[in-house]
Amino acid sequence: MARKDSELTGVKEIARRANVSIGTVDRVIHNRKGVSKKTKDKINAIIKELDYQPNIFARRLASKKQLVFAILIPKVSQETNYWEAPLLGIEQAGAEISPYGITVQPYLYEVNDKKSFLEQVARIDLDQVQGVLLAPSFIEESAHFIKALESKKIPYVFINSDIPGYNSLSYFGPDLYQSGYLSAHLMKYLVKRKEKVLIINISQEIDDQHHLSRKEQGFRNYFKDHKIESPILKIDIQQTDYAHVSKALGQILRKEPVAAIFVTNSRVSTVAKYLKKTKDTQPILIGFDYTKENLVFLKEGIIDFLICQKPREQGYKGLMALYQFVLHSRTGEKNNFMPIDIITSENCDFYIN
Amino acid sequence: MARKDSELTGVKEIARRANVSIGTVDRVIHNRKGVSKKTKDKINAIIKELDYQPNIFARRLASKKQLVFAILIPKVSQETNYWEAPLLGIEQAGAEISPYGITVQPYLYEVNDKKSFLEQVARIDLDQVQGVLLAPSFIEESAHFIKALESKKIPYVFINSDIPGYNSLSYFGPDLYQSGYLSAHLMKYLVKRKEKVLIINISQEIDDQHHLSRKEQGFRNYFKDHKIESPILKIDIQQTDYAHVSKALGQILRKEPVAAIFVTNSRVSTVAKYLKKTKDTQPILIGFDYTKENLVFLKEGIIDFLICQKPREQGYKGLMALYQFVLHSRTGEKNNFMPIDIITSENCDFYIN
DNA sequence: CTGAAAGCGCTTACAG
DNA sequence: CTGAAAGCGCTTACAG
């Protein structure tokens, strides 16, 4: 039995109401050119009126082309295996969405190397990419790339650190300020009144905008807010290799013995390595991330606390957010702050990224 | 231009090779009857040889029927809002997979009421259901239901507690034994040598197979393994209302003052309520779950530690596992133990289910 | 037990 | 600027 006209669904019903062919409807839906403003407006009105939701099965079946998501994050380096976890999460999400015709293409840069970041960016062909998941480690270089994405209307998601003020789809990672603030809260329990505390930033890139600075601010503000009298020293080390770090540490620690040290990133293991070699009384040591190197020192008792923020989940959820948006136009929360997990030698064996 | 025969894909290629129609191929793929063994075997061999993966877009487009997943979990009760979290996770997953033609039907039973469990089970029409997500609170009653599922070949996933020995697709929840074990580890730091510790089970159903017993075993075994000399008392309270619990507590605590109490489930708030009213020295109190009631007592310092195991994630991941299996024949890990999070008044505001 | 045909709701050339 | 038709890879009656 033939369907009544009024029961048509989808493009056919739209076409019928607009008195055009489904081809024209398709053109309007995809914002392709070659449609008069008049018919375009008419069709759009009907789409709105019907609250038309395209059938994704039909769409993906008819259009054989794959969607490509580019992943721009650091590669695992000799210094740290931190970036293994996000990649695992991304791979899992990638496997789950691959049946929907999505291909994930990783572009991995050296974590300390702006040039390598730019090289990877150059390799991405934006005409072949429908979404980007990135860790914007280098702020200026990222800004440039993001402009290109926005002009092509390619959606992008930040993980691990964000750059406020951009129109990213969403962000999955720590609340940097808050994680510094919580570290200070922990610190409060561990140092006595007026004992000195040292903040260490170890990174090639350190400036006021930078991610590490936001953690430092959180840390300092906790001390301010709670009127803690311990003086805060601070040192920036812009060469990340052990030789440089140990030299810088030696200089300051010989002059200024401190009760506790707060390292603003995963490089805490480098500091631990130095402390282990000195026989002085060991200061309390707090740092970031569940890396292989850090775990060793945590279990040895050199590192006291690690703050960790679900790196694996950042990758997984970040990619899923991209998928939800590109395939289903579904947007979730913009800022997704990971829980601030406190890892000690006692609970580290149970930790799940 | 006509395609070369060898380029056919999917059912058409299978049909060509087997010298049958695609209708017959479809029958074999779906194990429908009415195909001679001979052709069936031939087709199955070809499917295997080609490693044929059905195109889910085409499948879902052609077959207009919805898939239904039944959710069988407790409803939020007056006594505890624990089950709110899993339901939220389930709803989120449900929203994400609804574009794929999946409908989620909740069947919520009273957490303390076997009859209500059976009533909900009776409401589920197994001929209309393609998967089940359940919290098997009542062991015998669940066993019966599971048998029905297995005879109909309906896949099912456990959350929150499992029943070992069944052929569930997977389990998302605590490692019950381990969470008892970790609780004891915590306890070790908090009680002095030879001080008494009290274990409290509050539940209508308590027996050797039961979930609570497995936590208790873990707890006891930690003490054994580590030769901790504190004597362990234990009490089972099978009426969960405050009147009964407080009476039972009064009886034992008047006779036997204890340094610490371990409540094996979320009912710890009932114990806290009692302790708050007595003016005796307060024992250390450890229990389970991030419920509204428990949080109040945690912040007041009556409850010292809450063990929490991501109830929201259990629901989300459980439903996703069902979806992955039913739509993509993808199976993950069978046992998915949630991390054992330790919540204190210090970090409770940062906790994410 | 098996086949031939229609149709699911889109996209993609191609024709005008 | 627009339309008509073929086709994506399945499932679903229906016919025999």
From TrEMBL, chains A, B:
Xref: Pfam families: LacI (PF00356), Peripla_BP_4 (PF13407)
Domain HTH lacI-type: 9-63
Keywords: DNA-binding, Transcription, Transcription regulation
Tagged with keyword Nucleotidyltransferase: no
PANTHER family, per the entry: LACI-FAMILY TRANSCRIPTION REGULATOR, LACI-RELATED TRANSCRIPTIONAL REPRESSOR
Protein's recorded name: Substrate-binding domain-containing protein
Lineage, uppermost ranks: Bacteria, Pseudomonadati, Bacteroidota, Chitinophagia, Chitinophagales
